[in-house]
Amino acid sequence: MTTRVYNFNPGPAALPLPVLERVRDELLDYKGTGMSVMEMSHRSQEFSRILEEAIARIKRLLKLDDRFQVLFLQGGASLQFCMVPMNLALTGKPIDYIDTGTWSSKAIQEAKILGKDVRVIASSEDKEYSYIPGNFSVDEDASYLHITSNNTIRGTQWKSFPNTGGIPLVADMSSDIFSRVFDPSPFGLIYAGAQKNAGPAGVTIVIIRKDMLERVPPELPTMLKYTTYAEKNSLYNTPPCFAIYVVGLVMEWLEEEIGGLEKMEAINRSKAEMLYSCIDEIEMYRGTAHPDSRSMMNVTFRLPTPELEKKFVEEAAQRGLVGLKGHRSVGGCRASLYNAVPVEAVEKLVEFMREFARNN
Amino acid sequence: MTTRVYNFNPGPAALPLPVLERVRDELLDYKGTGMSVMEMSHRSQEFSRILEEAIARIKRLLKLDDRFQVLFLQGGASLQFCMVPMNLALTGKPIDYIDTGTWSSKAIQEAKILGKDVRVIASSEDKEYSYIPGNFSVDEDASYLHITSNNTIRGTQWKSFPNTGGIPLVADMSSDIFSRVFDPSPFGLIYAGAQKNAGPAGVTIVIIRKDMLERVPPELPTMLKYTTYAEKNSLYNTPPCFAIYVVGLVMEWLEEEIGGLEKMEAINRSKAEMLYSCIDEIEMYRGTAHPDSRSMMNVTFRLPTPELEKKFVEEAAQRGLVGLKGHRSVGGCRASLYNAVPVEAVEKLVEFMREFARNN
Ligand SMILES: Cc1ncc(COP(=O)(O)O)c(C=O)c1O
Ligand SMILES: Cc1ncc(COP(=O)(O)O)c(C=O)c1O
Ligand SMILES: [Mg+2]
Ligand SMILES: [Mg+2]
Ligand SMILES: [Mg+2]
Ligand SMILES: [Mg+2]
């Protein structure tokens, strides 16, 4: 018999059970083709349909109009840290960044390696990245402004996106894409490694506003140019077919079982509120993010001692509540409540947290 | 009921049935973890074991000693076309290439885009890339010599690798890695998109001789440096975990069910001989590759007219023999006989070819 745990992993992370069941059932014979999706040509009609449907669902879910194009790349969000400035930096125009922790810091670092003119216009480093900066002004001559919409490690999240007065926004949405509704119009580019809210590791979703493609320098290596993917609908070379297929199934689940991002956001909000209430209420737990910057996706908290945290994580795992250890760079505890984590999992976690607090 | 076809796809391509069955059976609960491999942290003990085992099996199968390191990257073989020269070209030393068709040509093109000093020391372009050049001399001052071990499109394959007198060989082995035994010592680097002989699309295997890492320019973007992957055992960022898992299972199948590369090579040789004999024997079929350059992996052939070729491909598909259309750039027919294509599939194909010739 299959026993499934409650999975609070930060990424790769929980996938919707109905999606996994579909993948299992179709694994040896995809819709009567007599082969697995892993064995199909990326230029076959069947895969073409999988690709088109995944794109169409992403566009509907995010309410992207035809100014935007959805691309599938490889290399993780980390490759985007260098691809974005390579492709979108304009000569003589600085790139503005807001530094909200590890991932923004790495993005900044890669732009610097490329020798770009980087301006960090705001940072929350002064308080261990425990908040989202509110006080900054975007250079009106900037190539673009880069932000990380959700800091997976520190558990902070932009509640609304900065007004850039027409400067394109670029966002690393790896850990909160598809978790809530937002207006895509200020965005020039959005990228996300799929492995938190959208599918398995091994595919990166890039959403680009088509006018941004005009910025791409012609002399870049072919595989590092967004135009290569845009012109060939992500089929210049062999894409990560199976990962795209799973992303498509996750999008189908979001549209057809959940009912879209408004509904998903409401569920995510109630899960997060349930957990933050427990943290606030019980003396033993202390949230690490500033209340107005708290992430709905990654709930970070501490217990009085590292020993108690260790015990907490271990006892939780014994109860089938796994993935609760904080990121190795900051310690503590973290519960990632991505879309595929059911309300029931959070209920069980809160139940366990109450009990653990009573007994320790 | 599951009906499986005989799959002659050029890549993504057939996978061993026992591997697919394992993937299916473990999909919701990998070895009692209560989660799918797709849901596991890449830093978990379980995934670490999957990764280490895949590496160990690749090293054993290819008889790689500790001078070599096995890395898992993303971006396909196509990304390697630019990464190799970025990382391994030495200042003031030209890069030598042998051009055996589309894939070598693309590799050459990417080195040129980077402004490298490229020398094409041999090419079979004069005869539509129907043979592997035999007459060339490697520049004794070259950074390295790049070859494509098997031309997937033209159906040509290097029978033995060129003697470079100490200049490191670099090979794109995308379409024949793990198909036969070879001596790895002259190689500085080997790369292969997994989607032909090693697993699903979405992971690129890179085998690097460790001394080559000293060439990597420190100022490259982090994700484009081999040192990043080498220093972190392919875990600098989230690797394509699921694809690596499937590669590991294919390697297990190669070692434990097939019995290693000597045995695999013998099987591959007998499959290819069976098909080439049929082509040579029957008037209607004409092999396109020069006999001494014929690939054991991709058997390319023509029928008298494009109309007959179309009919051939369609009738074959009706019999459950799929993927026989030649590459869109060259037309004709192609049967890819990768490791996972069973002898039985080739027998059925030959049977059909005899019948088709009689009836047309
Ligand atoms: C916000 C954010 N950006 C980037 C990354 C790095 O992603 P990848 O491992 O796909 O390169 C992560 C990984 O956790 C992340 O959370
Ligand atoms: C020999 C060879 N090299 C490179 C490639 C391109 O590989 P990818 O699609 O993984 O970039 C192929 C694809 O068929 C190939 O056959
Ligand atoms: Mg972060
Ligand atoms: Mg509290
Ligand atoms: Mg080729
Ligand atoms: Mg003949």
TrEMBL record, chains A, B:
Transmembrane segments: none annotated. This is Phosphoserine aminotransferase. Pyridoxal 5'-phosphate binds at A77, S78, W103, T152, D172, Q195, N237, T238. GO terms for cellular component: cytoplasm. It catalyses: 4-(phosphooxy)-L-threonine + 2-oxoglutarate = (R)-3-hydroxy-2-oxo-4-phosphooxybutanoate + L-glutamate; O-phospho-L-serine + 2-oxoglutarate = 3-phosphooxypyruvate + L-glutamate. The keyword ATP-binding does not apply. Its EC number is 2.6.1.52.
